[in-house]
Specification:
about 40% strand; five-stranded mixed beta sheet; about 25% helix; 10 strands
């Protein structure tokens, strides 16, 4: 038995309407039972990428305070956290997440007096309608850094996109296998194995809010990808 391997091929697709029959296939890894190949084994890596419609954002705000003592730094952090809650909570969708603070010491020696620092973060979700208002309000607060805003795919859009990516990846794998078989003068193409992996997107960092407004429709859309490892037997 001989073996051929193909490098990964990536294509961009649009989230068009798709049949729900493949919805379950797109949500979990696929693994077909491996079969013996008496001809030529063709191994392919195929990837499809696309963007989904989104209706909200996941945000994360960094919060810091600095003082001469650890107690003072934590007290300042608490005051700043209260200010963040006051302006952010009415704009956010659902509860905020605030982990326990961390403290560390800086300075000393030639770099100046020793200072105690305390930090934490505030994360949650915000609708497209409140996207700019939250950026502007949080960006003006002392000790607050806008660490990331990641668009969150609408549930129906993400399901349709993952289904479409899976179908396109399988179709591309079959096309490559048929082309390879024809080039080798072979006629039979049998799919032996499917190994599926998906991917998402990371939060997009923002600096301090500028004077102009931020349009949520200009933000990067959530990206999704499906990567398939496909084994074909050509004979």
């Amino acid at each position: 038995m001989s073996t051929l391997r193909s490098a990964a091929v990536a294509f961009s697709v649009l989230p068009l309407g798709m049949s729900p029959s493949l919805a379950l296939m797109a949500t979990a890894p696929l693994q077909a039972q491996s079969l013996a190949c008496s001809g030529t084994l063709l191994q392919l890596q195929v990837q499809q990428q696309g963007v989904a419609a989104f209706d909200r954002f996941r945000f994360e705000l960094g919060l810091e305070a600095e003082a001469a003592s650890k107690t003072e730094a934590l007290e300042q952090l608490n005051r700043r956290l209260a200010a963040v809650r006051k302006v952010v909570a009415p704009l956010a969708s659902g509860a905020l997440t605030v982990p326990a603070p961390s403290t560390y010491r800086s300075g000393g020696g030639s770099s100046g007096p020793v200072r105690e620092r305390a930090s934490t973060s505030v994360s949650g979700q915000v609708s497209k309608a409140n996207y700019d208002a939250l950026i502007q309000a949080a960006g003006r607060l002392p000790g607050v850094n806008l660490q990331g805003f990641a668009a969150q795919a609408a549930d129906a859009s993400e399901t349709k996109l993952q289904t479409r990516l899976l179908r396109e990846a399988l179709a591309e794998g079959k096309r490559q296998a048929d082309t390879t078989a024809a080039a080798l003068g072979l006629r039979r193409v049998q799919l032996l194995r499917i190994d599926q992996r998906g991917g998402g997107s990371r939060p997009v960092p923002y600096g301090m809010a500028a004077a102009r407004s931020f349009n949520p429709d200009e933000a990067p859309a959530p990206q999704r990808s499906v990567s398939l490892a496909l084994d074909y037997c050509l004979s």
